[in-house]
Design a protein that fits this description.
The protein is an alpha+beta fold. It has 3 domains: 69 residues, no CATH class; 96 residues, Arc Repressor Mutant, subunit A, CATH 1.10.10; 93 residues, Winged helix-like DNA-binding domain superfamily/Winged helix DNA-binding domain (Arc Repressor Mutant, subunit A). A hairpin with a 2-residue loop joins strand 6 and strand 7. The longest helix is centred in the C-terminal third of the chain and has 23 residues. The protein is globular and about 60 Å long.
């Protein structure tokens, strides 16, 4: 049964459904600097919406969360199945370079939409925003994103062709990374990841699993860093690596299966020699979507 608390909340606040909020102040420490939906639009899972968390709903009603965007229903993707588009897993995706979180998200969107390796591609920021809950009201930030990808050799050029539609020309670096494999996952499986390394490591895990639903994977520290696009000299102290990289990756991937009851479940351990961590051990279990 649906929870209709958002409908009541919108009447109290005198706002429409589809609004977005961000927890502010000291409460960010508890919930992260992230956005939450208030309302049913028939497209998002209720598990992704703030109405399933009474504590967060209470923060909205008491002013501890701020409205950051009144969502226009016209900006919602016309294609409700866009989040189900598949991505072929490639274990060497880290070779695309040093990108920030937004750039990696955009890159995975491009890859998912361009399975035929077309040199030019028309992309729709409306779809991109819908998939990643990315909300940018001005074209300025979108231009910054595209310019950065051109400068980093991912895109060759871009031009506006319609309302929120951009034609992009992909570089050979990106085209060579778009491969068709038998090991795929849906873009919705990664859309809520908050750590850059989670995207890359998820790719790696899916590729290593292949068609199996269970596997134990052992990786030495340097290999792990390479997969996650971490500079080899960074996190030389294991405790820092675990805190800054390993734990966020585990949280991202395991949180998804906790919410949706399908995806990857990862159990983590270390292999030591003379009390020094030599390898990382990941036990991966895949639960299929019903």
């Amino acid at each position: 049964m649906k929870n209709y608390m958002p409908l009541i909340a919108t009447q109290i606040l005198n706002i429409e459904l589809y609004s977005l909020f961000r927890v502010k102040g000291k409460d960010i420490n508890n919930h992260g600097n992230q956005t939450y939906y208030l309302g049913y639009d028939g497209l998002h899972s209720t598990k992704d919406e703030v109405n399933t968390n009474p504590e967060l709903l209470n923060k909205i009603l008491t002013g501890k969360a701020e409205i950051i965007y009144l969502k226009d229903k016209k900006k919602i993707s016309d294609d409700c199945t866009i989040c189900d588009i598949a991505i072929s897993a490639v274990s060497s995706r880290f070779k695309l370079g040093n990108l920030n979180l937004l750039e990696w998200r955009f890159l995975y969107y491009l890859i998912a939409k361009n399975s035929n390796k077309k040199e030019t591609q028309i992309i729709d920021f409306k779809e991109f925003k819908f998939i990643y809950h990315y909300f940018c009201n001005t074209l300025t930030k979108e231009k910054i994103l595209l310019e950065s990808l051109v400068n980093k050799g991912i895109l060759v050029d871009y031009k506006k062709v319609g309302n929120q539609q951009i034609e992009v020309k992909l570089s050979n670096t990106l085209l060579n990374n778009i491969k068709t494999t038998n090991y795929t996952y849906k873009i919705k499986n990664i859309s809520n990841f908050k750590c850059i390394a989670s995207y890359l490591f998820y790719d790696y895990l899916i590729y290593q699993l292949k068609k199996e639903n269970f596997k134990v994977i052992e990786i030495d520290l340097n290999e792990f860093k390479k997969i996650c696009s971490i500079n080899g000299g960074s996190y030389s102290i294991y405790t820092n690596l675990k805190k800054r990289m390993i734990n966020p990756i585990l949280n991202d991937i395991n949180n998804y299966v906790d919410k949706h009851k399908y995806g990857l479940r990862i159990f983590f351990d270390t292999i030591k020699q003379n009390r020094k961590v030599e390898k990382l051990k990941f036990t991966v279990i895949r639960k299929e979507e019903e």
